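Narrative of accomplishments. A recurring question from our advisory board has been how the design workflow behaves on a single, concrete structure rather than in aggregate. To address it, we present the structure tokens for one chain from the evaluation set, followed by the sequence designed for it. No filtering or post-editing was applied between the two.
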């Protein structure tokens, strides 16, 4: 649902030139029956899926089958479950309003200084990829700075000054869910109205004639307010991903409050997911080249997904461990740690190879050798021809999306840290497998239309998508 920091297209370098025909970028122009059915299913059921998982933990100690059996046998009714669910509170509304406002201020008004202080970090004002209409947007990259300031204030406020308890997020978890839903629906609706009435770039809009598809997948490519407030970059990175590590810390604090200690499983989940979050912000400039920014329009899929789906379902492992304080054996813990770190290494190094290849226009070394690549071209909506090189060396010679494979290994590690007592913490790896497989197919369909026969040459050179020799 909500996108993570994932590469948009295969390992390319691109330059500008002259043109002839237009390639297919972004979301669809027309909606087939399967796409419409999928959109309606997600619009109707995705909010209930989030509610079901959160309710199962709150009322059934994270059992997914117990509430279903109770409903099937008539022991409870849906109205009973709803009646026992905490509603929105004044405290939760104040916390959430303060949180979002603070993140907006950090994003919009505070110029980045981390790129001046941290060697190797690329922040400050950066250019994004060319849009289908040929526009190149500029972004203020300051996510790492926002993450550091937020977590510093969290430590000071909760531990040093005792302004609030470190369990505050867990203690208001379900009331905060309703606040997140309000924001998710509000921003998605605003984005649709804006796309019709006052778009940032009218040439980068897409209409299908179907209200539900337009609402979910978005009309505007890069909706903005003013010069710097970009909806896609803000909602993809803040407030959800900044909150991810704070949510896990609050869960760890609650586990300690309830059980007297923090288990090694909770430590592993916090550590491995913190690595992923910090990697996202350290490489936020690279994120400007990913599928979310380069191809997706901004609609309910990103707006609601980043406000609700991401913070509530990507943190299920920590939530589960509050109710079930799993303590792993040393071999199990080491195995989870090694799997998570190996997955992260593959994910990061594959993306590093792609970025290095793109930045140097292929004048670099991949695994100690000059890179092999396939030259191709495509045409944007403004009639400009762009030339690309598709890398077929290093990790990108093993599979077309091996970075996704590394991401899935990390996802599995999060889940394995929770042991095998319940299905709930494993939802994440199942979801990520579906999401990333779908992204593979979606990305390759787009690339086939974009590059034509040159894409067929590439797939012949790199025949596997995710698992070398298998798929």
């Amino acid at each position: 649902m909500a996108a993570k920091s994932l590469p948009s297209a295969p390992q390319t370098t691109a330059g500008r030139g002259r043109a002839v025909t237009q390639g297919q970028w972004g979301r669809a122009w027309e909606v087939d029956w399967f796409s419409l059915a999928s959109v309606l299913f997600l619009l109707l059921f995705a909010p209930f899926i989030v509610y079901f998982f959160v309710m199962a933990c709150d009322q059934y100690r994270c059992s997914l089958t117990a509430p279903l059996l109770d409903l099937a046998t008539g022991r409870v009714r849906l109205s009973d479950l709803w009646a026992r669910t905490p509603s929105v509170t004044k405290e939760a509304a104040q916390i959430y309003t303060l949180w979002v406002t603070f993140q907006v201020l950090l994003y919009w008004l505070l110029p980045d200084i981390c790129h001046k202080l941290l060697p190797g970090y690329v922040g400050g004002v950066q250019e994004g990829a060319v849009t289908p209409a040929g526009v190149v947007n500029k972004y203020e990259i300051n996510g790492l700075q926002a993450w550091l300031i937020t977590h510093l204030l969290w430590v000071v406020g909760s531990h040093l000054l005792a302004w609030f308890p470190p369990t505050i997020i867990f203690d208001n978890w379900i009331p905060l869910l309703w606040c997140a839903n309000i924001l998710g629906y509000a921003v998605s609706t605003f984005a649709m109205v804006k796309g019709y009435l006052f778009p940032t770039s009218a040439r980068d809009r897409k209409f299908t004639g179907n209200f539900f598809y337009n609402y979910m997948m978005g009309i505007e490519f890069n909706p903005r307010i003013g010069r710097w407030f970009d909806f896609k970059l803000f909602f993809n990175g803040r407030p959800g991903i900044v909150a991810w590590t704070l949510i896990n810390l609050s869960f760890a604090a609650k586990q300690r409050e309830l059980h007297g200690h923090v288990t090694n499983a909770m430590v592993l989940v916090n550590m491995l997911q913190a690595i992923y979050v910090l990697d996202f912000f350290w490489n936020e400039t690279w994120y400007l080249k990913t599928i979310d920014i380069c191809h997706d329009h901004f609609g309910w899929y990103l707006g609601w997904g980043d406000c609700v789906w991401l913070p509530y379902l990507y943190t299920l492992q920590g939530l589960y461990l509050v109710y079930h304080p799993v303590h792993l054996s040393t071999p199990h813990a080491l195995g989870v740690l090694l799997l998570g770190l190996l997955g992260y290494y593959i994910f990061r190094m594959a993306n590093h190879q792609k970025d290095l290849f793109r930045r140097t226009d292929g004048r670099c070394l991949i695994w100690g050798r000059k890179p092999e690549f396939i030259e191709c071209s495509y045409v944007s909506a403004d009639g400009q021809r762009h030339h690309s090189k598709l890398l077929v060396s290093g990790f990108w010679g093993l599979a077309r999306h091996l970075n996704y494979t590394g991401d899935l290994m990390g996802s599995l590690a999060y889940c394995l840290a929770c042991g095998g007592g319940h299905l709930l913490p494993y939802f994440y790896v199942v979801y990520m497998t579906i999401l990333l497989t779908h992204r593979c197919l979606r990305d390759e369909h787009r690339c086939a239309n974009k590059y034509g026969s040159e894409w067929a040459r590439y797939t012949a050179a790199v025949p596997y998508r995710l698992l070398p020799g298998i798929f």
